[in-house]
Amino acid sequence: MPTYELITKEELGKGSTISLQILDSEYDVYHEMARIMFDKIRDNNAKGKNTVLICPVGPIGQYKRFASMVNKYRLSLKNVYIFNMDEYLDNNKQLISINHPLSFSSAMERELYSKVDDKLNVPIENRFFPQPGKEELIWDKMCTLGGVDLCLGGIGINGHVAFNEPPEPDEKISDEEFKNLSTRILKISRETKTVNAIMAAGGYIDIIPDWCITLGMNEILNSKKIVIGMFRDWQKGIIRKILHGPVTMSVPASFLQLHTDAKIIMTVNVAERPI
Fold it and tell me: Is the pLDDT assigned to residue 43 strictly greater than 70?
């Protein structure tokens, strides 16, 4: 059995196909993610092109910084299309209310859209969340727009990207089938509920929904560029599996090894050995 926990900070990322950038602080990671978003849109605007993004709610610290850059330098977002990765569902497998304290839709409005000057902002019709019963519309719209230019995201303790949870032991699916899954409803894993409760609900696990809707690995891996931000101490173990372990659905983010332009931006604390 590989001893990933023994991989040192100096060895981390060597030989991996995933690009790695190590920064000092969580806030440096946010700033770098914001800069990458800004630069992509600025460059596409100069070419008269649309910019298509996949964006997470977690991490979210990049959005206020990005909005500040947009307002300061008067960058138009009128030709930007944003697809959010996922959203929580209630027990009827319908979107939770925008008034729910964990609503990702509300978080995007609070952290990004409300911070941008109206004259520059992303048009409402260009903002997309996956919706139950309309799962196929996400991929169709992305294809109509010419594909996703940039996918931003984070990583869960079990290696999930968006809410692409590793299959449970009794699920019959191959790695190839998992890699090609598109937008769908699924049950959130126990590990993810626990970590999300710690991060977003003061440990109150009862408020974390059991269900979600998520973009699939198909949409993520077909993005032209993928940038992942990591800065949590509990990510020390999973980062080693992502960079140096086998490509497997048991660590969904390991599929980033197959991408031609995937980058992880992380803090020095995550680079340290977990034990």
Answer: yes
Rounded Cα–Cα distance for residues 116 and 100 (Å): 23
Q: pLDDT per residue over 61-80, tens digit each?
A: 999 999 999 999 999 999 99
Q: Element (H or E) spanning 144, and its range? A: helix 135-144
Domains belonging to the chain, first-starting first, are 4-271 (3.40.50.1360)
Record the tokens describing residue 253, joined without a space.
């983010």
Confidence grade of residue 151 (pLDDT, cut at 50, 70, 90): very high
Q: What is the pLDDT of residue 2?
A: 72
- What sign does the dihedral 62-259-15-192 (CA atoms) show? positive
- Tokens, residue 211: 């269900």
Cβ(23)–Cβ(266) below 8 Å? yes
Amino acid at 226: I
b/e sequence 110-128, b meaning 16+ C-beta within 10 Å: ebbbebbeeebbbeeebbb
**At residue 177, what are phi and psi to the nearest 5 degrees?**
-65, -40
